[in-house]
Design brief:
elongated, six-stranded antiparallel sheet, Methylamine Dehydrogenase, Chain H, Jelly Rolls, about 725 residues, single chain, Immunoglobulin-like, mainly beta
Amino acid sequence: MTRPAALVVALVVALALPALAAAPRFWRFEGTSVFLKGELESLSVDSEARLRLGPAVGTLFDPETPTAWCVARGHEGVFYVGTGNDGRLFRVEGDQGRVVFDAEELELHAVAVGSDGTVYAATSPEGAVYAIDSDGEARRFFDPSETYIWALAFDGSGNLVVATGAEGRVYRVGPDGTSTTLLSSSDAHVLSLAVDSAGRVYAGSSPGGVVYRIDAEGQVFVLLDSPFSEIKALAVAADGGLYAGAVNGEGATPPPPSLPAAPIPGQAVPTAQVTVSEAFAPITPLAPPPVVSAVPSTATPRGAVLRIDPDGTVETLWSSADDVPHAIAPAEDGVLVGTGDSGKVYRVTRSGAWALIATLSADQVTGISTHAGEPAALVTSNPARLHTLSRHTAAEGTFVSEVKDAEAVSTWGRLRWEGRAPAGTSVRLETRSGNTSRPDTTWGPWTEGEVGARGAPIKSESSRFLQVRVTLAGKDGATPEVEALSAAYLQRNLRPRVTSITVHPPGEVFQKPIAVTGEPEVLGLDPDPLGERSSPPAPGAPAVTAFSRKFQRRGLQTIVWNAEDSNGDALVYGVAYRALGDQQWRVLRRGVADPVLAWDTTAMPDGRYLVRVTASDAPDNPPALALAGDKDSASFEVDNSPPTLRASLAPGTRDRIRATAQDSGSRIRRLEFSLDAGRWQEAHPVDGINDSTEETYEFSVQTSTSPGPHVVVLRVSDWLGNVATGRVDVP
């Protein structure tokens, strides 16, 4: 930018790049939504927005198929896993699994183990229930007419309860295979079952989202007609309350078997095989409000966990706009909830407190089995795996934040954490940075963190994007707790830009929004044309852009501009001018806070001028770091002098007038005349068009209708509104 040195000093503080903005900024990583959007490994996030070590997760078995829909616990630590696409039932003992049943149907959605060790497997489509004895012999036990069989459970008498679709029915099947219809729902599918200690059967439907209760005598009662489209899973609590995993919108109609990759409704674990779980380390009791959500309350929930108390009271204990519950199972003071589409496992308590306790490397957690004193068993889909959830916390876990955008190349400050670390535990902080919105091979490596430090300097290279990784390490079951992280950064100072300049018509001014004196005060008019502001504008103070009433003030020229700063710095402006053809810019105004200037041009020679507006970010930066940008306006006319007018009778005539109008600056706009104070009439120039600074006119006046003498008054105006008058006497 080439400028005379004096002008640069007068208007801006120049600085060669690179430069850093003076005011540091801070990111805070806190709140459940922030932690849940990050990548979590062996960490839990609870409803009080704390990062803690979660239970250790182990993988028992890989059936080498995309989907697994259900799991049931057999005798002596044996698990049975039902899969999709191939309709197989696996028996898993220890870390070894084998196929014990290969169905003709494609999907195996529910499995239950009887007290005698007989395994019952439900298949779809063209659904049937098969009984597999201890020798691995399978027989068709129950063959209803419905297409799908979604859930199995045992009632208090050892009868098998079967839930079906696409005609939503619930059957009770005796040990000899004879069946009784308990429920014929108006909904197309009954997706979930649970049985309480009194032998009452609970069923959840789709697409109406209804929860039914069927007593021992077969009496059906609607416990809940929910606003959700599916009741995907049910579980009975020890105190008699009923938990329901509800889904809104998506998945209302089960997909056909030809689309196995899409999650199909999961099944509830048979209550007779489930007791209170101790499958994970106890979480410190919380005291949240009655309804706690994993997302802001304004979000529309895709999924929720409801509790129906024995007296019929319904509470929403957990909801999410992102996660859908596929399976729930009883746990200490609440339930475990397996969700999709990010493979998350939540613990939801009776009080409404919740915690994300595990994130599995799968899309959906489709089945959960819990048993007192034993690790919880979980099956996943995409890919299919059988996992265990330990009663003990993991030794180490990590949180990786979302990528943060500084919006400009920045220098990083310190990374700090807030929380507590019991003796022997530690918190390690690491960062990496780059200039692409997604981490790739061009990003720098993770920097070494400082174990146990409350804060550490960010050693990553200056760049635009930053990502944070926190590693928690525990000892003897104790875990650190991280409630918030903060990262400081300093943007590279970017030059402000003047994006547009508007030159209003001469004399057009705007009244200030508030007139102090009672008289109209002109917006942008400073009595001292070179006066400095007594104080700079407050950082972030809004510029005056809304003009009020418009009026005319001769000699004033209003100039309005727009400017922006990518750093968000407060701006101050300088205005300079020069005449067209002149090389010298002259200072007109310094320290202008608002993007408007009313210039009193009455002291300026007539001619064409340009203005240059310079925006400086000096209010938010020290002099050595401030930057400036400028823009020139289009040229405009300054003309405060009236035209000159010479007029007389044309030689040899009695009523013909010849006039010459001349202006030093702008073009002649029109010439008018009035005979004997009559109406004004326009006269046209000899060449037919007013397009020059000098025009000649010749016209006749009608004096024959009355005796003389007569007076002809002439009025000439230029294009900037300056007016001159003259007189011609007609004998």
